[in-house]
Amino acid sequence: MTETENKHDEIEALLAENRLFAPPTEFAASARVNSPEIYAEAAADLEGFWAKEAAQLDWFEPWHTVLDWQAPYAKWFDGGKINVSYNCLDRHVAAGRGDRVAFYWEGEPGDTRIITYKDLLEDVSRCANALKELGIQRGDVVAIYMPMIPELAVAMLACARIGAPHTVVFGGFSSASLSDRINDAHAKAVITADGGFRRGAPSGLKVNVDEALQTTPTIEKVLVVKRTGQDVDWVEGRDVWWHDLVPSQPADCPPEHMESEDMLYLLYTSGTTAKPKGILHTTGGYLTGVASTHRLVFDIKDDDVYWAAADIGWVTGHSYIVYGPLANGSTSVLYEGTPDYPAWDRWWDIVEKYKVTILYCAPTAIRAHMKQGPQFAQTHDLSSLRLLGSVGEPINPEAWIWYQKYIGQERCPVVDTWWQTETGMIMISPLPGLTVTKPGSATTPFPGIDADIFDHNGDPVETGGGYLVIKKPWPAMLRGIYGDPERYERTYWARFPGNYFPGDGARRDVDGYYWLMGRVDDVMNVSGHRLSTTEIESALVSHPAVAEAAVVGIPDDLTGEAIFSFVILKADVDGNGDLGAELRQHVGKVIGPIARPKSVMFTPDLPKTRSGKIMRRLLRDIAQNRPLGDTTTLADTSVVEAIRSSSAAASDDE
Ligand code: WTA
């Protein structure tokens, strides 16, 4: 492509990936979906399709209107009355499935609990009654700041039961992040724990709550689970131990009949720099969307043991650990800790122990396992697995192949699922019994999702790169940014009026498959070529020495921007000699000279958010030796220092 052809704004598509994986015959034969009609049916009657999905839930009163769309505000199943906790618990128990396991919970130190649907219903009802005793009423917001223990799911479901919206704040966030979110949400109570276990050591949570509550006038009560037994400060009249209040409550609590459009929860996502956005999700449409996608994307069957190895503190945990799986009556694994504790085979030990059949995790975890090498998985029996999923970032084709080969043992389909906190549910994904997959592609929109790729004028790009958009409303979509309609309209609906703009770049190939190319804010402009971060990172990861890579654009006198790359090598590779030059050449060969990084820096780690996303903004600061911007969402602050101290030696600047 010449300079003149590059005046337009689309993102150039450079990477070609030609490997194809058809669903294994046996898998397809017994899959919930193995014929493509579902797509045509949903496209022909979108409202009818979602109404049929919603009808699989139990409603106290039917809706009168499937969809009321006053762009950009949707109401789904208006007039319907429903309770999420009732749908996740009571109806399964009433159907005689109370003895089914809801959660196999495993604590990081190795303690375990098995919780059936009947147990969970009783625990949730007791907790709901306890919340009422603490003065929480329908409509009051409750903040939840907990480790990955069963009480976290119990607390969310108890809130849903009494109609009190929750806002879960990830347990790794600081007291300042917690107080910001509490204040934005006007939360009335906090549910927390003394602490949680992380890599073998107890870490404090209550201590952060105490600190946060210095500046949160709306909080009246703090309910505290004893998890680690560490010492905590106590404020009489405000703080209440869970074990003093909850177990003695009646195990019966009638569920509130909620309006379909009542708020179920707020979940804060950090914009790159600005104040976090309180993403607002409601009740009937949300549950419809997550139950339907969970059932069909993961091909859920009665005998599955499903494990989403994520944290409940982010949206994957809300939709695909708590609400989707429980709405479907599934049996899940819930694990408190990190993948490397006490050793890098902890996950594979859990898969073997509980005979996990479906594993859903993030590319960052897959690449971390890839860095360590396959030997940790190879010492465990993973033959129970039948399906693998990925979420959270674009998955590099080589990481996809590694996952499929060493974890899926070339037997399991891989579903790469694209979605967001804002979308609430999976939007672009294979259906594993039907879709021929391509490593690195999330393939095609879920039935009933009307996605497209636009150029900067808002014209569809048939094949090639551009801006991902969603053209029609979907049931689990966000209903707004809490308290800030103007920001909602500006952030998601102003770029292409009438269409939802998620902020991601994507390209469509000749088969109509979608390839996510990263956030459009991260797109680099090199000599007038708009290049996506994802493709260059995937090219780096396709070199056998590389486990993970991140690229950023930095100002360059000659080319406008130049590509600066950070590379994590596999554990057994030595980064000396000409490896930097070799990697630059490798990228040039795989996707073209324009994409060849100007610099390669070897680093032991990358700055990531707690949900595993690379913080390219900080990498830009590091690459340019600038002071760092806001680091509050950074998972591990020591990483930045580690990168900075490794930089001088390994940089390969021409
Ligand atoms: C990215 C996580 C490529 C994307 C559920 C999106 C992905 C953001 C994928 C949302 C995927 C998530 N392929 N990119 N399969 N899944 N993303 O809100 O940039 O934590 O906009 O929700 O993650 O992140 P969030």
What do you see in this structure?
The chain is α/β, with parallel strands linked by helices and about 650 residues long. Among the domains are: about 140 residues, Rossmann fold, CATH 3.40.50.980; about 130 residues, GMP Synthetase, Chain A, domain 3. It is built from 20 helices and 30 strands. The strands form eight sheets. The protein has an eight-stranded mixed beta sheet with strand order 12-11-8-6-7-14-15-23, with helices on both faces. Strand 24 and strand 25 form a beta hairpin. The longest helix is centred in the N-terminal third of the chain and has 17 residues. The site of 5'-O-[(S)-ethoxy(hydroxy)phosphoryl]adenosine has 21 residues, from helix 11, strand 20 and strand 25.
A few lines on this structure:
The protein has 20 helices and 30 strands. The protein is an alpha/beta fold.
